[in-house]
């Protein structure tokens, strides 16, 4: 933006930063740790929904500052960013916060179309590529607890009814890394 005078003039306004597409940073969140720091800061201040998603991944997974990471991921859900709904929801489910996680997943309308959740999962795998994602003990404990309550088909990968949907999403997340 700074190389094109018209863009520089437009970039003064917060609405530009609020609506700016940050797809390159959502796909590679660690990039903004060394580059684009000023842009990220302005996007965060302007309320861009993708900026707290990137910041949340950096803090929660890379820096291991879970409280701040969860705060930023939660902020990203307020901006209706679907990948933020999925990531925040799955992290909360895995941490044992089942009601919060399920409520967040409801916004993805997974009961009507499970494809949205699958697409979000693919994007999140891309975002977390190259980041060491630690499997926390609470993830394993929650996964075991949830599996024990499933009465349908917990071992079949393709079938995901309302009873086992959350377990299978959690299992993918925990066992992926």
Automatic annotation (TrEMBL):
Every At2g35280-like TPR domain range: 37-127
A Pfam family matched in the record: TPR_27
Top-rank lineage group of the source organism: Eukaryota
PANTHER family attached to this UniProt entry: (RAPE) HYPOTHETICAL PROTEIN (PTHR33784:SF34), OS05G0482100 PROTEIN (PTHR33784)
UniProt-recorded name of the protein: At2g35280-like TPR domain-containing protein
Organism: Brassica oleracea var. oleracea
């Amino acid at each position: 933006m700074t190389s094109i005078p018209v863009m520089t003039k437009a970039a003064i306004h917060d609405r530009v930063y609020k609506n700016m597409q940050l797809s390159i940073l959502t796909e590679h969140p660690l990039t903004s740790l060394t580059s684009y720091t000023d842009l990220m800061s302005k996007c965060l201040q302007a309320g861009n929904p993708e900026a707290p998603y990137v910041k949340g991944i950096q803090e929660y997974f890379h820096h291991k500052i879970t409280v701040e990471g969860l705060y930023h991921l939660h902020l990203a859900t307020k901006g209706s960013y679907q990948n933020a709904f999925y990531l925040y929801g799955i992290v909360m489910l895995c941490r044992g916060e089942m009601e919060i996680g399920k409520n967040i997943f409801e916004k993805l309308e997974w009961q009507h179309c499970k494809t949205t959740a699958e697409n979000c999962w693919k994007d999140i795998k891309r975002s977390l590529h190259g980041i060491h994602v630690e499997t926390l003990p609470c993830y394993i404990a929650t996964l075991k607890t949830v599996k024990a309550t499933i009465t349908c088909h917990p071992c079949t990968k393709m079938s995901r009814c309302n009873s086992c949907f959350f377990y299978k999403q959690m299992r993918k997340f925990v066992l992926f890394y």
